[in-house]
Amino acid sequence: MVVPYPAAVEAIECIQPTVYCKGREYEDQNNDVTGNIRADVEAVARVGGTVHYVGSVVFSSSRLINCAFNAVSKSANNFCRELATRYTPEDFRTAVDRFNRLRVLVVGDIIFDRYCQVNVQGLTSKNRTLSARFIEEETQAGGALAIARHIAAFAGSVDVLSLAGPEPWVDALLNTHLGGRIQHILRRPNFTTVVKLRYIESAKRSAELNKLFAVNFLDQEPPGPEAEEEVCRALRAIVGNYDLVVVADFGHGLLQPRVRELVQEKARCWR
Predict the structure, then answer these.
(1) 176 vs 137, 147, 155, CA distance in Å?
(2) Which of 50, 127, 63, 70 is nearest to 89 (CA)?
(3) Residue 170 in domain
(4) Rounded Cα gap, residues 21 and 32, in angstroms
(5) CA-CA distance, 144 to 108, in Å (whole number)?
(6) What pLDDT digit, counting tens, does each position of 122-160 carry?
(7) What CA–CA distance (Å, rounded) separates 166 from 160?
(8) The domain that contains 185 carries what CATH number?
């Protein structure tokens, strides 16, 4: 039976087992970073069953990969191991739970990643140019917008301070990806909204996508002094309203020295 839920509580309540078995690695509930085992145990007790821990201790594939292979750098691996000796999974859960009270400001370049999927048909006979049939196009929010979306899963509220150009299509995308929340996207008449267009094709023998080539829509020079002053003015007006400021520099000119210095000087230090 396939259970269409992320945990086992619903299945336990449906089946009402007399005995519910879990691996020995779950015997110490503090080692369960998901927190699901506690809910399982409580559900088994409610239906009158008992929990038994059986077998030998096993580890998840993610843990085996992280320990045995170079999934992260040696220094990062050592840092995580040392961190695990000082803090329990419960400590980490408590710290993450504290994020839901945070008001966060993300300052950085917004990028729209546009993917144009095509089907390569061959080469033209005259000048050997790649010829492809258009299938579909999709635009995703990247850069500071993507960072804000991820933080929003934990924090109480997230806003974005960034630059965008005057292009009329930007409004609809910002409304879609920002969900109508209060934001601080400064529209500059001489600024080109950063778009990274990638032409892709599905691999014939796998679900992966092959990138054929890319076209970047961006200014050759960083925003001028007027744009920098406008960003600084907006930052001064709002930075005190946030518990945490996240800086996301993708190298497209928003984070000039004055902007960085202002963040360092005025942003709160959250603890």
Answers:
(1) 16, 16, 20
(2) 63
(3) yes
(4) 15
(5) 5
(6) 887 777 788 889 999 999 999 999 999 899 888 888 999
(7) 18
(8) 3.40.1190.20
